[in-house]
Amino acid sequence: MKKLFPLPSSIGLVIMLACLASGPFARAAIENSECLGCHSDESLFRSGTDGVNHSRMSDQLFVDEEKFSHSVHHNNGIGCVDCHSDIKKLNYNENVPHKKQLDVVNCTMCHEEESAAFKDSVHMKIRGKGITMTCSACHGYHYVKHQESMSAKERANNSCAKCHNTSQTHDWLPKKNEHFAFVECVVCHVPEAPRHIHLTFFDMMSNKFYSGQEILKILGITEEDFMPVLDINKDGTINVDEFENLELMLRQKNVHAIFHAEMVAEMQAIVHQVNRGAALRDCKTCHSADSPYFKAVTLVLTRDDGQADHFQVDRAVLESFSLRHFYALGGTRMKLLDKIGFLLLAGGCAVVIGHLTVRIVTIPLRKKNEVESKQSSLLKEGSR
Ligand code: HEC
Ligand code: HEC
Ligand code: HEC
Ligand code: HEC
Ligand code: HEC
Ligand code: HEC
Ligand code: HEC
User: Fold this and answer.
1) Domain residue limits at 367
2) Is 175 near ligand 7, meaning CB less than 6 Å away?
3) CA 104 to ligand 2 center in whole angstroms
4) 20 to 30 Å CA-CA from 247: which of 98, 116, 146, 279?
5) Which residues line the pocket of ligand 1, CB cutoff 6 A?
6) What is the pLDDT of residues 246-274, one digit of tens each?
7) Ligand 2 centroid vs 14 CA: distance in angstroms?
């Protein structure tokens, strides 16, 4: 057991703490360091485990200060007692200077919208089966990270994939692993959630993504200058010419970055409304000339803290010359539907398509009618 925290000896400190105890979160009332005085000890375990719900809490009472300091909550000034809000003051005369059993932390007190959206989800309905799913089941609690700069895969691993093994489901979806790599789970499972095509910088040489900071450093500009430098015609959107210009600027610095595109949901509360029945199955929703799923395209500069800066890009960039080399098969601009048609014809056995890290759905450029006739026959196949 850790030694007791020293008594605050100076009256000045007491007065200071009392003054700081005002304000909405009254967080300064008890500094994190006071809690960490005991809870940064890896050998601190609870004395008894009766009545402890292990699906919620661990026996080890260690909190990793370093990891906590990178959490979204710490970054936003949320301290230990903002969440453990039933600790109003510490009694330093005691071995355990607070109640031995504390109240369950209520995420809802700060995240009402998310809780409301969650109420309509399949995960709330399983309460009927006696399973209570907490916010922490997906997010964890002490080390919650911003997810904005994460890829679709990382987002899935960070939540859904902790419980669902998609290798045994979704067999109706051709190329399902590609879909999971390029389409975030909630894009299909919460069709009402706004989403966008998320473009990040990828280096084929080192096989890794460039962070926003790295890109800015390479370009020798600050984040504030990014749009002013890029958006030459000042319309607030990066168009095809401007996009090509960016590619050129990078190439001049000897950086051969290409763009990695994924379909991800916006960070909004509605993503919590995960459902089965409503999930997207209709191929045409995405694989069609005027799919609303490709309307919003943003270039993303990721930040170290997991947040990201978004810059609006003209949808035409997805079809542009500067992105053409992404396509897997052949040199010509190929319509995805041609590929699907090919796959279906080949009966799925001729999976010629090697795994390319970086690709993007070709938004069919040619006339819509052409596409539609094909689609109707495809869709029958696809949804079998
Ligand atoms: C003097 C050391 C000490 C300090 C300071 C301290 N704790 Fe604890 N804490 C303990 C011990 C010991 C236990 C385990 C009690 C037991 O044996 O069940 C504990 C348990 C807990 C638990 C688990 C409660 C439960 O319901 O099982 C939480 C949460 C907690 N502490 C949070 C905090 C927070 C937040 C602070 C700062 C405001 C803090 N502690 C300060 C020693 C300390
Ligand atoms: C975002 C809210 C949040 C913040 C901030 C937070 N906690 Fe927790 N803490 C939780 C939740 C949730 C649990 C799991 C138990 C529960 O559901 O109440 C928990 C559990 C614990 C436990 C029990 C052991 C464990 O890991 O399950 C300890 C000890 C603890 N917290 C200490 C701290 C300390 C010390 C800090 C500040 C450095 C802190 N907490 C900050 C939400 C928070
Ligand atoms: C005392 C208020 C408070 C409590 C309690 C609280 N949070 Fe937060 N949370 C915040 C603030 C402030 C932010 C940062 C602003 C924002 O993104 O909304 C945040 C952000 C988040 C994010 C956003 C991450 C991202 O990608 O931007 C998640 C996820 C999150 N909290 C989960 C939780 C969970 C899970 C709990 C319960 C264990 C919890 N929060 C409890 C205040 C709180
Ligand atoms: C903590 C574990 C856990 C996590 C994390 C989780 N789920 Fe679930 N999910 C469940 C459980 C349990 C069920 C209920 C299964 C049942 O009813 O048989 C369920 C049900 C579902 C269903 C309905 C399945 C059906 O058979 O009706 C869908 C769809 C779903 N989850 C999608 C998701 C998505 C998308 C995510 C990520 C955003 C996610 N889940 C994260 C545990 C989890
Ligand atoms: C292209 C859209 C799409 C994507 C992407 C997608 N799903 Fe689904 N998912 C569906 C549809 C549609 C169903 C319903 C199938 C049915 O009713 O048979 C489903 C069913 C499920 C089920 C219930 C499985 C069953 O058959 O019992 C779970 C769980 C689930 N999805 C989780 C996930 C997770 C986790 C991810 C991300 C890794 C994901 N889904 C990605 C469309 C999608
Ligand atoms: C089934 C898994 C799951 C559960 C349970 C869950 N979340 Fe989330 N949450 C997600 C996913 C996935 C995202 C990110 C969506 C995206 O990638 O765009 C997210 C995003 C967030 C965000 C950032 C977006 C926003 O709304 O600002 C917050 C805050 C948040 N969750 C809080 C909560 C709270 C509070 C709860 C409990 C009521 C909760 N989450 C329960 C999966 C979950
Ligand atoms: C939510 C949008 C969405 C839905 C719904 C959807 N897809 Fe996709 N699909 C994508 C994205 C994004 C990719 C990744 C594009 C890439 O690899 O270039 C993709 C890739 C594919 C590929 C692989 C193409 C390649 O280059 O390897 C095939 C085949 C495919 N989809 C067929 C279908 C069929 C058939 C359906 C209906 C059963 C369907 N998709 C439903 C978005 C979707």
Assistant:
1) 152-382
2) yes
3) 9
4) 146
5) 2, 4-5, 30, 34-35, 37-39, 46-47, 57, 61, 80-81, 84, 87, 90, 96-98, 100-102
6) 989 998 998 888 888 889 999 999 999 99
7) 25
Are 296 and 222 in the same domain? yes
User: Which residue carries 């000896």 as its tokens?
Assistant: 9
Q: Please state, in angstroms and rounded to a whole number, the distance separating the CA atoms of residues 37 and 5.
A: 7
Q: Which of 31-35, 46-50, 265-269 has the lowest mean pLDDT?
A: 46-50
- pTM attached to this predicted model: 0.86
Q: What is the β-pairing status of strands 257-265 and 195-203?
A: antiparallel
Please count the structural domains in the chain.
2
Query: Would residue 207 be called left, alpha or beta, if left means φ above 0 and alpha means ψ between -120 and 50 degrees?
Result: left
Best substitution site from 361, 362, 377 to test ligand 7's pocket, by max atoms within 8 Å of Cβ? 361
- Separation of CA 353 and ligand 5 centre (Å): 24
pLDDT of residue 40: 96
Same domain, 51 and 197: no
Residue 179 sits in the same domain as residue 280: yes
**pLDDT computed for residue 257 by the predictor:** 81
* Listed residue (348, 337, 342) closest to 375, CA to CA: 337
Mean pLDDT score of the chain, rounded to an integer? 78
Local structure of 263: helix, strand or coil: strand
Position 172 confidence tier, pLDDT thresholds 50, 70, 90: very high
Same-domain pairing of 231 and 331: yes
**Closest by alpha carbon to 110, among 82, 138, 136?**
82
For residue 141, the ligand 3 atom closest to its alpha carbon is: 38
Q: What is the pLDDT of residue 219?
A: 95
